[in-house]
Amino acid sequence: MSVDTGSAGGIELYVYSGTGNTHHVAERFADDARSRGRAARVVMLENVAEQLPAIRLIGLFGPTHGFTTTWPILRAAMTIPNVRGRDAFVLVTRGGTKVAGKVFAGFEGTAAWLPAALLALRGARIRGVGAIDMPLNWTVIVPSFGPSAVEAIVERGDEQTSRFADRILDGETAFGGLGQLFLGVLILPLSLGYMLIARLLLAKMFFADEKCTSCGTCEKNCPQRAVGLRGRSRKPYWTYSCQNCMRCMSICPTEAIQGGQAWLVFYMWLVALPAGAVAAGALLDSVGVTGGVISGVLSLVTSYVWIMIAVWLAYGILWLGLLVPGVRFVLSRATLTSRYRRYKGPDRCS
Ligand SMILES: Cc1cc2nc3c(=O)[nH]c(=O)nc-3n(C[C@H](O)[C@H](O)[C@H](O)COP(=O)(O)O)c2cc1C
Q: Which atom of ligand 1 is nearest to the CA of 23?
């Protein structure tokens, strides 16, 4: 591959982005680099290609989920090739809000420092860690802001990105968010709970209502390949690979994708049932083991398996129920998302 990487060496920016906020930030960083004569390439993690030759600087960009990073970013931090001895930085986006005319920062917790630590462990020289406020995109929980608020938050995010990019491209370091890291570590159990359990329940909130035309936009664009059109009806089904990135809700041309809040409550009830612990107790009794570490670990493992199976079964039943037009209509209208404004991304906010 012959790409002129400029005298200061090329820059490879690896990005995971749901609704486009993080992609927007990475493109802005790349533009700043190009304006200084550096070759910069933005690579979406779902289409990782061969690395540019003569790479000097690696950037890893991702959104904050549950006060920490996402699985795709953790995987990337562990697998991006040729990081040893290279300069690297991590830049995350977090959910900025605009209330009473003021833009407020999101809370990234451990989202930026965790992947930076993994890159450092693999031998990268970390030059910067930062967070950029972009519009909060969690539209299965809260409605999106209107166009003028989105514009104001993006404008502020662009300024933050340019400041960070200037420091890195000038050869300085840019370390931020130590206070956030401290708080993020304190609430790490919450973040772990999000990554291991809540994320699965949230993935199984999604369904398509009667406006769905089976066009396959959600299936084709899911960065995790977690949505597939299934059955004779060709309706979308969400698997546990879903990271709740919100891209499907954001790009669905008929706004047919909903998130069932009532289902979430039902799943939480299922999760709270002590079925896993009861199963573990029965198993241990049958082999004559009581108490101790083995019993604790087995109880945790069986509880986890119980959650996975119970929620998967419940979602399957609900998905089949959705094939009945009247049921689908009622379930769709019973969601908050059917009333919420959708977030269309930083560059398509109207
Ligand atoms: C499931 C989910 C969880 C989120 N959790 C947080 C959070 O803990 N803190 C925060 O500041 N923003 C949070 N956000 C907001 C996103 O990090 C933010 O909007 C980000 O810019 C989205 O980037 P993307 O469009 O590139 O995916 C969350 C969003 C989603 C969808």
A: 26
